[in-house]
Amino acid sequence: MTIVGLLSTFKITPSLPPWLGYGFLLGIVVSATFYFLFSVTRLWFQVVGGPIPGSYRIKPRQTVALRQAVVDGNNVTLGTAALDELAQMIGLDSVKTEISTLVQRLRVEAARREQGLPVAPISLHMIFTGPPGVGKTVVARLYGAILRDLGVLEKGLLVETDRSGLVAGYVGQTAIKTKAKIDEARDGILFIDEAYSLTSRDGQHAFGQEAVDTLLKEMEDQRDRLVVIAAGYPDLMRQFVTSNPGLPSRFAKTIHFDGYSVEDLLKIIHVMARRDGLNISAESEETLKAFFASAMQRPNFGNARTARTLLERAREAQAARLAPLLGQRNINLAEITHADISTATAEFS
What we know:
By secondary structure, this protein is α/β, with parallel strands linked by helices. It contains 14 helices and 9 strands. It has a 5-stranded parallel β-sheet with strand order 4-5-6-3-7. Strands 1-2 form a two-stranded antiparallel sheet. α8 (205-221) links the parallel β5 (188-193) and β6 (226-232). α13 packs across α14 (338-346).
């Protein structure tokens, strides 16, 4: 069409055989017709029977087959890559159950809509509570991917932020900064870590409250294109929710992440090692159990983060042990020995 428009503008009349001219014109008409039909088909389900205010819906153009399976002794929902990955995570039984229940609810509400039955609005905003290092950010990323796979969110990307990413140091700038972060997360998940710091009683409280007010308005205005997850320690998050009358209604669901057990941490460090192409010797099991049991009593215990730090220190000990032997044959570069683990655990003392 662009070529035809240019020829018409400059009054250029190309000399073509009649059959070629008719064929060219027919090709343009057919292409335009197919493009129009494709556009209408792609947008049809998003226009007809639009969503009820405050609700999310599964788009009929995307079908997800879910199935039930038993993972680590728990009955969980599988079906999409993100759901499967969540189900395979170590521990987090209550979290898996909550997400699985929500997925089933979304599918039932979608089926009711298709049958013309009333559909109740579903709030997908959440509060994640729990200690550090228990997978809150990972689960938030998978939650966004699950909603994308179900057709609820267009992209399902995760944008992680905290107070510094939302609050500015000057009057009138916080709302702009918060809106920019929300725009970045549109069609996905906005994950606010340590969200309670927005309402902390300090000299910057007014700026933090401005961020909360802006967030509440955008959560309402963009309820079909934005999911917000606020995360932090349980007691502080309860104070956060009660600090503003609009917060309890926006964050209707709270999911608590329990700290990992010693057995969970053993599994986690072995999984981390395998992903790095390493294996931890069987002789190290008792040392690892004793270390995690002791570390859990410390105030700065980081759950999976502590396991990752321990593995990194064990790799440093392995490197110090193997570096002088690199010229020799048959060096096992994949094994983390009991001596490596003992050296790593001693550094935490």
